Amino acid sequence: MQKKIISPQHYVYISFFLYAVVLGGIYPRLADLQTQMAVTKSVLGGALIGAAVGLQISLMFAGPLLKRWGFRKTLFIGIPMLGLAEVAVALAHSPIAFFLFFGIGGLAIGAVEILVNLEADRTEHLIKRRIMNRSHAMWSFGFFTAGIIGAGAAQFGISPAVQILIITIISSSTIFWIFRDFEPAPARSHDNDTSTHFVKPTRGILLVVAFCLSAMLLEGASADWSVIFMRDIFNTTPFLSGLALAFGALTQAILRYFADGYVDKYGPVSVARTMIAILGLGVVTVTVAINPYMALTGFALIGIGTSGIFPLAMSAAAQRTDRPAATNVASLSQIAFTAFLIGPPLLGFIAEHFGTRLSFGVAIPLIILSWFNIHSLETPTVESGQQNARR
């Protein structure tokens, strides 16, 4: 029998990274696609909602299919499907086509999002060590990679469709090769049902959503509007505009990579307070920025602020004992990840009619909401001893 050279947690890290590389391929090119379709920010925002619609459909109906396919087959189908949908989006010359193709991509996003987070939770249980924040760090490193590639491609005049197609081919081929013999971590005792209650969040999950909503909205807003913000406010080059997205993803990735140790040492509540305060500072900095470098600093602070909030929320949801872990992860994903996709498009209306700066500033009330729902992280776990003591 061949000895495995990749540890269980590194399989999870690779899946998060490659998923984000493909997902993030289109976001640095949204300014180019807006120009290609010759539409306003409001219309572009409406077209972007297609991904959220596809995500919701996936979360509502994909449960039995995901249970039958499992982790490996979902990646083998979901990642190429997402990439090819984004290629079609990049070729669209009307917002309706953009909406429909992005909706197909949303179907893949919903499936992959649930599976990678669930596998991260199961692997944490298997190896008795936190990896959720580091897993999301790899997602952010993937998004950073996509941002740099997209910024460079835009600067050199490479079309969005060609750029995304190349990324999809390379990432899908890598997944097929690395995960061909992958065996997922065993299911935990409370997550053996992946087919029920995907769209019925409990009160506890709604509190977790209230905690992470600002981070998801601002993470999505940075992905959707940071490049356009730099172009419209400061008339920057395509590469410098793309750095706004890349900087936020990079600082987010670095903080997430080391966050598990801080959470173990100081606890999730203390870490969450720090993150929310930095997030608020970043939003204010972007809103009042007087030059592109101040704006880049603000986007970097937003990346730091959002770095630990969603992983902490995912861990809290997965470790609740009232329902199967997969059900609670899906319930959280349904609303929180939809905020990542649907919130920023709605901010396009604000950007169009009240200015791009204000589209970030309106998130300040949600940051206050997050602050007053930090206690939602104090969830019961099925484990005892050391894992409970950390909370």
Features:
single chain; 391 residues; mainly alpha; globular; disordered C terminus
Structure at a glance:
The protein has about 400 residues and is an all-alpha fold.
- Roughly what fraction of the amino acids lie in strands? under 5%
- The overall average pLDDT, rounded, is 86
Structural shape? globular
* Helix content bin: over 70%
Q: State the distance separating the first and last CA atoms.
A: 40 Å
Oligomer: single chain
Runs in which pLDDT lies below 50 for 5 or more consecutive residues are: 194-198, 381-391
Number of strands: 0
Sheet with the most strands? none
User: Structural class of the secondary elements?
Assistant: mainly alpha
* Individual helix count: 16
Task: Supply Rg.
Answer: 19 Å
Order of helices and strands: HHHHHHHHHHHHHHHH
Kindly describe this structure:
The protein is an all-alpha fold. It has helices at 8-23, 30-37, 41-61, 63-91, 95-127, 132-155, 160-178, 203-234, 238-266, 268-288, 292-306, 309-318, 325-354, 356-361, 364-371, 386-389. Helix 3 packs antiparallel against helix 13 and helix 8 runs antiparallel to helix 11 (292-306). The N and C termini lie far apart (40 Å). The relative contact order is 0.16. The model is unreliable at 194-198 and 381-391 (pLDDT under 50).
